[in-house]
What does this fold into?
Amino acid sequence: QLALFSEEDLNEARTASDHGLSELSLAVYELLEQTTRQAERASPVQARVGDAGGVYRPGLDENLKRVSLRVEQVMRVGQAILDWQNKEDVQRTMRRDIKRELRKVGDLPEEEIEDQARRMVDIARSKAARA
It folds into this structure.
């Protein structure tokens, strides 16, 4: 099982680097992609190839990729502060700056932006704990 987990981590890192992303920005991208897919399903529009939920990725949405990379930069700035995981003011600043970037995605409702910013700080926290 350990070998399987190790292989999954390598595949994730490989996928991220193939698209010019880090593991952190890929996690952010996947969260954004899932959120925008749900928003598209809520408002009837034409379906996209790959909406079945698999990992098929012929290419990444460039707008989501740019936003993911900018969100990662916001996270890195916050993570550079010593003991940031225990400092609510640092996390609040990270969420504020992440929300600014998420508003560039498109038609996400404000409550969804709030929720995603919180989840992204949680992702940064869990990735920092693993490192």
The radius of gyration is 15 Å.
